[in-house]
């Protein structure tokens, strides 16, 4: 047991212990924030550029072990971010086996179906803004909880678009893609605050790039409604430029055109975050 030296009091010792515990607690919070930011940035970076993760780590396990709530940090709940990461891994697996001419379409569809089933369940759980199954949001204040639910819902819908681009290609007429784009448009229309678009750059770009001709004006107007200007922080305007280039390329050549193809055409990669 640590002794209390001359000139010390039990109260002083207790204060010292509380300070030590306080520092430890702050260190723990900082670790969670840093890990959470790194994980969310890396996953969205991979999904933005359709590239390999920077590290070979089990992000789901890290989030669970350290009890990191990405919803409070980033707006989108852990479950959907993890599913986006699984699509990233599926995308890279497909590229690897294609290079060796060993792609099994049956295996690809089987893996994709498992992810889609869980994505659909997330969307069903989020249909009500106060869904009891959205337990990562329950302890937040009402306004914050609502915005996190809205953000998570839009990310889940855009993840389904991303999944079907991986499975079948970037074709707006594909029923699963067309359905998800329509639902995202409805979700954007129902946002409690259009300025939440600043936290939805990746879904905005993914859905916009796969929009049909008659839907494209909606994405143009959304920039104005969200009060996005050239001086605004973030990559919304860059994402919109990618969309416009994608629409133009599809009009010219009716090709399998996605956001990464346009980034490559423009000569730079953008973190859609």
Helical amount among residues, as a percent range? 55-70%
DSSP E strands, number? 0
- How far apart the termini lie comes to 51 Å
Query: Which radius of gyration do the C-alpha atoms yield?
Result: 22 Å
Instruction: Report the mean per-residue pLDDT as an integer.
Output: 86
Could you state the order of secondary-structure elements as H and E? HHHHHHHHHHH
Sequence stretches where pLDDT stays below 50 over 5 or more residues: 1-11, 129-141
What class do helices, strands and sheet pairing give? Answer: mainly alpha
* Strand residue content: under 5%
Q: Treating each run of at least 4 consecutive H or I residues as one helix, how many helices?
A: 11
Write down the overall geometry.
globular
**Number of self-contained structural domains:** 1
Q: How would a textbook summarize the main sheet?
A: none
